[in-house]
Specification:
Structural class: alpha/beta
CATH topology of the largest domain: Endonuclease, Chain A
Distance between the termini: 44 Å
Low-confidence stretches: 65-78, 211-218
Mean pLDDT: 87
Number of helices: 20
Number of strands: 17
CATH class of the largest domain: Alpha Beta
CATH architecture of the largest domain: 2-Layer Sandwich
Largest sheet: 15 strands, mixed
Radius of gyration: 23 Å
Length: about 475
């Protein structure tokens, strides 16, 4: 057989190309939701015999949907969900407090998200890395029963070791500790923090780092971009901040994180527990993992919904909710994002809001940590500027925050960037918050970043040299993959 293959190797390659190409192209055509995506993959497969099929097998197939659904069914056995109905919020209650249009937003959230809008919550904004890591370490040091942490990047630097030492100490005093770090994010520092935590006895899992077709590489896509920590089922942390020293110090990058208490912590915990189960098979249903609601008052506090997105049963949940929010805006939409490369549907919704007289402001960093993303954004800004939206380049250190406020009363905060990875390919967690106090705090944060910001104008974009504009557009063409 081997001799025949050696003799007829060209014919063998041709047959393999046809067989694998046909299978891969058929799979792409039958499973992709968008025409552009299906056509793109079919083109890659046909134009790159064998290699295209291999690339599709590594980067194009969603292998996560079934396992995620199984783990969710296991988590629903926990009796804690029965008591959460006390904190349910009606559409009428939202409409009475925030207006009928936000009552419609509540209904939309119920349709597109599996998690309810709940009352009895409290949210505290943490505006710097130092404030965030101090609050996280304080919560870890006070933990008595359980602690789960999930993050994209967990560097083995001064901050990472500080948090790791707190986790190891909690484990050694009997707290049930679980840590999930994305398989790609774990490699941002060498050596990885994973070995340090394992040496300290902490149970650790790397997310989605399986072997692919004999290659010891994690999937290029389908990353967990979530930043979650839940302590004793009572205190949650959610936001955009990775665990790394880059967010602390005199020239530190900026980001915004949030400390949460109340019933929504149950949903945040369920998300992290589901991801832990997906990687390890362990179901976190013991008494130490119960949610504590002793201080939460039904009908009071802040209204919050956990918005879970990912390339499984929750695909584009964040995208759908944001489109709805743009449609109900009457006065203002203010967006802070380090990477602003959404699809044409998202841009059309913003443009429609601007045409209705809504003031739309998009704030991105003037100095981006990803130069090609900055160039791609420059290649896209004209699509919203010409419709009346405003774009600002914030000066100072790189700002990694993901913030949105609509009409000074509805907020969207969490881990999602406004690009294809966060809106389609990554696992994300955000919070939909109805709270004028938090909205005012975020507005103040945005106003401060605009003091020395540079406005991007159509005239300035058109004044750029032709080579620069061409490079911007070439990078923009690759924006779905950046």
């Amino acid at each position: 057989m081997l001799e025949l293959i050696q003799i007829y190797w060209a014919e063998t390659l041709a047959v393999l190309s046809v067989v694998f190409g046909t299978v891969a192209a058929t799979h792409a055509a039958m499973t992709k939701r968008e025409v552009r995506s299906a056509l793109g993959w079919v083109g890659v497969i046909i134009l790159s015999p064998l290699v295209g099929a291999l690339i599709y097998a590594v980067a194009g197939i969603n292998r996560i949907r079934r396992a995620s659904l199984i783990s969710r069914r296991a988590l629903e056995l926990d009796e804690i969900w029965r008591s959460l109905s006390l904190y349910a919020v009606s559409r009428e209650a939202v409409a009475d407090q925030f207006g009928s249009r936000f009552g419609q937003m509540k209904l939309l959230g119920d349709k597109v998200s599996r998690h309810p809008l709940s009352s009895g919550n409290r949210v505290t904004m943490l505006s710097s890395g130092q404030e965030t890591f101090d609050a996280m370490c304080e919560a870890i040091d006070a933990a008595q029963q359980s602690l789960i942490l999930e993050t994209y990047i967990f560097d083995r630097d001064a901050i990472g070791l500080r948090v790791a030492d707190c986790l190891i100490s909690a484990h050694q005093r009997g707290v049930a500790v679980r840590v999930i770090v994305d398989a790609v994010g774990a490699r941002y520092s060498v050596p990885s923090i994973i070995g340090y935590l394992e040496e300290g006895g902490v149970p650790v899992a790397t997310f989605n780092g399986q072997v692919i077709m004999g290659l010891r590489l994690p999937y290029a896509n389908l990353r967990t971009h979530r930043k979650i920590m839940v302590v004793d089922g009572a205190i949650g942390f959610v936001g955009g901040m990775n665990i790394r020293a880059a967010f602390v110090g005199p020239n530190a990058s900026r980001d915004t994180h949030f400390r949460i208490t109340g019933p929504v912590v149950a949903d945040i915990l369920a998300v992290a527990a589901e991801d832990w189960h997906f990687e390890t098979g362990e179901v976190l249903l013991g008494p130490e993992w119960r949610v504590q609601l002793d201080e939460a008052v039904p009908g009071a506090g802040t209204l919050i919904r956990a918005v879970v997105s990912g390339p499984d049963a929750h695909i584009e949940t964040n995208h759908r909710l944001l489109l709805g929010a743009f449609s109900v805006a009457e006065r203002s939409i203010r967006i802070v994002s380090p990477y602003f490369l959404p699809d044409t549907t998202f841009l059309a919704a913003l443009n429609t809001a601007a045409r209705r007289g809504v003031q739309v402001d998009v704030i991105v960093p003037s100095q981006n940590n990803l130069a090609i993303v900055a160039r791609a954004m420059m290649g896209q800004f004209d699509q919203i500027l010409k419709e009346g939206c405003r774009v600002h380049l914030s000066t100072g250190p790189f700002d990694h925050s993901k913030l949105m406020v609509i009409d000074r009363q509805w907020c969207f905060i969490g881990s999602s960037n406004l690009d294809s990875r966060s809106l389609r390919l990554n696992f994300e967690i955000d919070l939909e918050v109805y709270d004028r106090v938090l909205a005012e705090q975020i507005e103040d944060r945005i106003d401060a970043s605009l003091v020395n910001a540079e406005a991007v104008t159509l005239e300035a974009l058109r004044a750029r040299s032709l080579p620069n504009r061409l490079i911007d557009r070439l990078f923009w063409l690759g924006s779905p993959y950046l």
